[in-house]
Design a protein that fits this description.
With 393 residues, the protein is α+β, with helices and mostly antiparallel strands. It contains twelve helices and 19 strands. Helix 9 crosses helix 10. It is elongated, with a radius of gyration of 26 Å. The two termini are 47 Å apart.
Length: 393
């Protein structure tokens, strides 16, 4: 689950970290009260969106008067922000963070995340932070340092000294950095973070460290422990993903044209791979699991076919805990209830497969049966090719 900047900074502020004073507004009418709380009329208005590159895309505006602040909020709230990370559709802005101005002398980069290869938390640092950090990491990798603090005790003095030297921090700044690094480590652990990125970690003109921007992502498996963060676990999900979760289905929308209904994540991945092997792309990942009801199977069909990009639907079921006859009845109900208009390819194997095929045979459905996974993928690709050919006629 991603947190907006204002939510992430609330966590950092609570942990005693140096973040600028700020107030979030959801309408331009809230700006005067927010400026009063800030104690001034100069600052920066920052669109709240789960994307980097906001500044380059026009999502960050400096203001020097209350009128300019209101105008900035009016312009940003309700706009569609398009960055290099959002794609052409962009994201809708519904909140703006009004923040006091900071006099910045240097911009650094500091992130805390998990190094899966080492099964350890890792610090990622650079003396060159800011909007171009991705380009810096790609073109000058020597400006990136990774350090691995101990799980049981966090960063020790030697690691923090190495990090401060790499960042060019000395004296009081080095002491401040050690405090910031330890607190960020604690926030990462205590709030079940998957990613905690500070970019930039700035040195202001008073030679103090300040956390100007943050990206906070929490491990969704630990959300039951992190209910007070204010984050919305469904914020970036496709509506189909949200609906699928209500029925115990695992659904992810993709960009292809062959809808997939499969039981088991491994089988789902194999199905997606072999579809690609035959020259097409899956429109989704949908795993009905091992204990889905007929109602859930019907809902799976409904979710898949709601995607206008789906031209062919492929059902690939290996019956085990979920027998094939139950899947078959769900297929029949779904087709009859939804009036399915796209070609349907069905491959059933495993527990009660004979009964399942009998259910489908007795239904009179117009579908194509497949003998195995390869046969199913090939027939799905051929069905797409036939539709494309018809469209050209």
């Amino acid at each position: 689950m991603k947190l907006h900047e204002y939510q992430g900074k609330a966590l950092l502020r609570k942990a005693g970290l140096p973040v600028p004073r700020s107030e979030v507004v959801f309408t331009a009418a809230e700006v005067p009260a927010a400026l009063k709380a800030l104690g001034g009329e100069e600052g920066v208005a920052k669109a709240q969106a789960f994307t980097g590159g906001r500044g380059k895309a026009g999502g960050v505006k400096v203001f020097h008067t209350a009128a300019e602040a209101s105008a900035a909020a009016e312009k940003l709230i309700g706009m569609t922000l398009v960055t290099h990370q959002t794609g052409p559709d962009g994201v809708l802005i519904s909140a703006v963070l009004l923040e006091e101005l900071s006099q910045v002398a240097r911009e650094l980069y500091f992130a805390v995340t998990l190094d899966r290869a080492k099964a350890n938390i890792v610090f990622i640092l650079s003396p060159d932070g800011g909007m171009d950090i991705e380009e810096i990491a790609e073109k000058t990798p020597e400006k990136i340092l990774k350090l691995w603090p101990a799980w049981d005790g966090g960063p020790d003095d030697a690691l923090l000294k190495q990090a401060a030297d790499f960042l060019g921090l000395t004296g009081a700044q080095e002491t401040q950095f050690a405090d910031v690094a330890r607190k960020l480590y604690n926030v990462y652990v205590e709030t079940d973070c998957a990613m905690l990125e500070i970019n930039p970690l700035a040195v202001n003109k008073a030679n103090d460290l300040i956390l100007l921007d943050c990206k906070v992502i929490l491990d969704e498996n630990a959300l039951y422990r992190q209910k007070d963060t204010g984050g919305d676990p469904d914020a970036e999900k496709d509506p189909g993903e949200i609906e699928a979760a209500k029925y115990g289905l695992s659904y992810i929308k993709l960009d292809g044209n062959i809808g997939c209904m499969v039981n088991g994540a491994g089988l789902a991945m194999a199905t997606m791979d072999i579809i690609a092997h035959y020259g097409e792309q899956p429109a989704n990942f949908l795993d009905v699991g091992g204990s889905a009801s007929e109602e859930a199977v019907t809902k799976a069909f409904e979710i898949i076919t709601a995607d206008k990009n789906v031209k062919v639907l492929l059902v690939n079921i290996f019956g085990g805990i979920m027998p094939c006859d139950r899947i078959a009845r769900g297929i029949v109900n779904a087709v009859n209830n939804l009036g399915l208009k796209v070609p349907l390819i069905v491959r059933l194997e495993g527990t009660n497969v004979t009964e399942g095929k009998a259910v489908i045979a007795a239904s009179g459905l117009n579908l194509t049966s497949a003998d195995d996974l390869e046969d199913a993928a090939r027939k799905a690709a051929e069905a797409v090719a036939a539709l494309k050919a018809q469209a050209k006629v």
